[in-house]
Specification:
Blueprint (H helix, E strand, L loop, with lengths): L11 H19 L4 E2 L1 H8 L3 H9 L11 E2 H12 L5 E6 L3 H8 L8 E8 L8 E2 L2 E5 L3 H8 L3 E4 L6 H10 L4 E4 L12 E4 L2 H9 L3
Helix pairs in contact: 1-4, 2-3
């Protein structure tokens, strides 16, 4: 997820690479390294260093001759460009195995995503907590959305319930859906959907094995 007001010239592929650069920069900061070169980043990711320089130029961030980029400054520039500094609140819809796994992942907060709570229709789960996040009754979603101003829903319900759940989410005035279900959702023009195609990514990875 990234800042909706981000410059439209930045493609999804560039955003993905910048996020990977950010991970590398974080590791360098933790190791106490002050500078990094485009070649070092490229080598770690098995890509061309000219691509790394091209991506970083989007940030208007210049390096120093024979030294490289200042790690902390480059990391901050990526965070500013990708909107990490602006916290975005979200709900997880579906407290199954995947929903609970995402709720346990603490690194989302480092990228500006604050998961408030989970919603489900299973009475045996409602009222429980996952990683200090309460599981609430799905029927209360409109009320909580209005109270907390949440704009993002992370959809992790079974595929056969995906569309009807998405319809309910949209009626609750949520405009952004991060869709982890294997379903192509039919949504109004003013609602944005990002499809997280887990199996598609897996098949791309294993295609030549």
């Amino acid at each position: 997820m990234y800042n909706k007001n981000m410059d439209k010239r930045i493609s999804e592929k560039v955003i993905n690479r910048l996020t990977l650069y950010h991970c590398i920069l974080q590791d360098y900061i933790e190791s106490g390294t002050e500078y990094i070169s485009s070649k070092q980043i490229a080598t770690l990711l098995h890509i061309d260093d000219s691509q790394v320089r091209k991506d970083i130029n989007i940030l208007n961030k210049s390096g120093k001759s024979r030294v490289g980029y200042i790690v902390k400054e480059l990391k901050k520039s990526i965070e500013t460009t990708l909107g990490f500094s602006k916290t975005k609140k979200a709900y997880i819809i579906g407290a199954g195995n995947l929903g609970m796994a995402l709720a346990k992942y603490d690194n989302f907060t480092s990228y500006g995503l604050n998961i408030i709570s989970l919603f489900d229709n299973d009475k045996n789960k409602i009222g429980g907590t996952i990683n200090d996040k309460e599981i609430l009754d799905i029927n209360t979603l409109p009320k909580f959305t209005q109270e907390h101003g949440v704009e993002i829903a992370i959809l992790t319900v079974p595929g056969k319930y995906a569309q009807q759940t998405a319809d309910f989410i949209i009626k609750a005035n949520i405009k952004y859906i991060w869709n982890f279900t294997p379903t192509v959702l039919n949504v109004p023009d003013d609602v944005q959907v990002w499809n997280e195609n887990l199996m598609g990514n897996f098949l791309q990875f294993t295609y030549n094995i």
